[in-house]
Amino acid sequence: MHIKTYLNYFNVYTAFPLSTESGVGTVNTIRYNRFNTTFTGGVGLKADYAEVFDYSLGAQPLASS
Hints:
The chain has 1 helix and 2 strands; from the N terminus they run ββα. It is of the alpha+beta class. Strands 1-2 form a two-stranded antiparallel sheet. A hairpin with a 2-residue loop joins strand 1 (38-41) and strand 2 (44-46).
């Protein structure tokens, strides 16, 4: 099956939350970003997922053209 088969099953959105600082924190570096995102080692990321969810619920969709 081709990925276009599932096109009608998905909606994709993006949002740009504002943060006090840019970047992602590490064990040795604290960054005050919107969702308290930090590296967990390797390629892993940890965030305040409840905050991410609450933010996404309040996001306004763009008007379609």
